[in-house]
Amino acid sequence: MKAVVWHGIGDIRLDEVDKPTIQDANDAIVRITRSAICGTDLHFVRGTMAPMEEGTVLGHEAVGVVEQVGDAVRGFSPGDRVVINSTVSCGACRYCREGHTAQCDVANANGPDAGTAFFGGPASTGPIDGLQAEYVRVPWARNTLHPLPDTVSDEQAILLSDIYPTGWFGAELAGVRRGDVVAVLGAGIVGQFAIASAFQQGASRVIAIDGLEDRLAQALAQNAEVVDFNREDPVQAVKDLTGGVGVDAVIDAVGVDAQHPVSGPAAPSDEEKSSFEQEVAQVAPGAAPQGDLWVPGSAPSQAARWAVEIVAKYGRIGIIGVYSPTVESYPIGAAMLKNLTIRMGNCDHHSVTPPLIERVAAGLFEPTALITEREPVGDAIAAYEAFDRREPGWLKVELTTA
Q1: Among 356, 400, 353, residue whose Cα is nearest residue 379
Q2: What residues have CB less than 8 Å from 177, skipping those under 6 apart?
Q3: 39 and 188 in contact (C-beta within 8 Å)?
Q4: What does DSSP assign to residue 87?
Q5: pTM exceeds 0.85 for this model
Q6: Is-contact 27 65, C-beta < 8 A?
Q7: Tens digits of per-residue pLDDT, 157-216?
Q8: pLDDT class of 348 with cuts at 50, 70, 90
Q9: Nearest alpha carbon to residue 353 among 112, 124, 52, 84
Q10: What is residue 402's predicted lDDT score, i.e. its pLDDT?
């Protein structure tokens, strides 16, 4: 079968690999009908989230049809349509029972202290072969799959595998309340769903901050107020928009591959650029750009710094943009002086996703307008390259196998 396989930093290939088989009684085999490329996948290719194991199949978003189940899997049968959670969880440990499934004690083969287990990630997350393939093995299927009602299409469901739940989780981490003014840093696909989720959770205003015009246009289409950090200082802009107070809550949907402004009043000084360059060297020492491909973000701590600066005193920050364990720069002193609450982490998909499936099934939210590219899995590498270059319009890439 065909699968997108990681061979090294800057080296991914569409390979022929063996079809997966049941390895444990808790496994299921799923035939994939839709998968997707996520910005997190780009971290692995750029080298800003490492180390990876060569031969790992990439991808952590997919929809498909159950083909086979292990003897211990109850509640699912061959022929069921399912959405696959990006994170893997057993459903029985202490953390799963509390709904904190991203910190399952059992799913990560590296042990209970290793943290989140997810598909297609680095060695520290399992590793577990990912979902950009024709067939996948799903560990702990009883808690890692969700059944899909007939009223939810595959195209809607692919956004329920990770992106919509993660955006919703980001708004929860930021403690969004009715009437809040919320800033979303990053208007990529995660940021777009964070904008939607913030409004759905009661925000009265959402301010989206990014440096790409097409992303800001999409945010504006969701009725967010937009700030282009290449044209104006986002900190001053937010202050101006909030009567000098700052926002009540910030959702950082950027993470380690943040870019600093290339123009405008917020462009960094030579000293600041040098500091950012040191951060990049620390975060991605093995980076191997190929021209304009696979280039790490120019300012790993930029979004974190802006978040602390634009939020009001006693404000709240939710971080869902991915930061690797090698990131050590954070403005903790400035955050402490403002009495901020900062929460972060990977989405608890198993507990977050079911109400969102119901919301889409009921017609309360239509997510597919945010899919901008639809490509067959055979064209996945070219799609990765266009997405990595941030080509205009490439907001969310759906890969089809059927």
Answers
A1: 400
A2: 201, 202, 248, 249
A3: yes
A4: B
A5: yes
A6: no
A7: 999 999 999 999 999 999 999 999 999 999 999 999 999 999 999 999 999 999 999 999
A8: very high
A9: 84
A10: 61
Question: Measured between alpha carbons, how far is 6 from 88 in angstroms, rounded to an integer?
Answer: 20
For residue 163, give every residue at least 6 positions away whose Cβ sits within 8 Å of its Cβ, in sequence order, or none. 36, 38, 61, 189, 190, 193, 396
Residue 38 tokens, joined: 């996520």
87-184-192-393 Cα dihedral, nearest 10 degrees: -120
Size (the chain), residues: 402
* CA atoms within 13 Å, Cβ hemisphere of 237: 19
What are the structure tokens assigned to 134, written together? 């024709």
Question: Mind listing the pLDDT tens digit for each residue in 259-313?
Answer: 999 999 999 999 999 999 999 999 999 999 999 999 999 999 999 999 999 999 9
Tally: H helices and E strands in the chain? 13, 16
Position 329 pLDDT exceeds 80: yes
Positive or negative torsion for Cα 118, 121, 125, 129: positive
Return the closest-CA partner of residue 39 out of 156, 198, 189, 159. 189
Q: Which of 85, 149, 81, 144 is nearest to 363 (CA)?
A: 149
* Residue type (1 letter), 365: F
Two structure tokens written together for 261: 């402004």
- Residue 206 has a pLDDT of 98
Sign of the dihedral through C-alpha 139, 141, 145, 149: positive
Give the Å distances, CA to CA, from 313 to 93, 155, 234, 336. Answer: 37, 41, 17, 10
Q: Give pLDDT tens digits for 22-52.
A: 999 999 999 999 999 999 999 999 999 889 9
Report which secondary-structure segment, H or E, holds 44.
helix 39-46
Taking CA atoms, 217 is separated from 72, 80, 163, 264, 331, in Å, by 48, 38, 19, 19, 30
User: What residues contact 156, with CB distance under 8 A and at least 6 apart?
Assistant: 360, 366, 367, 368
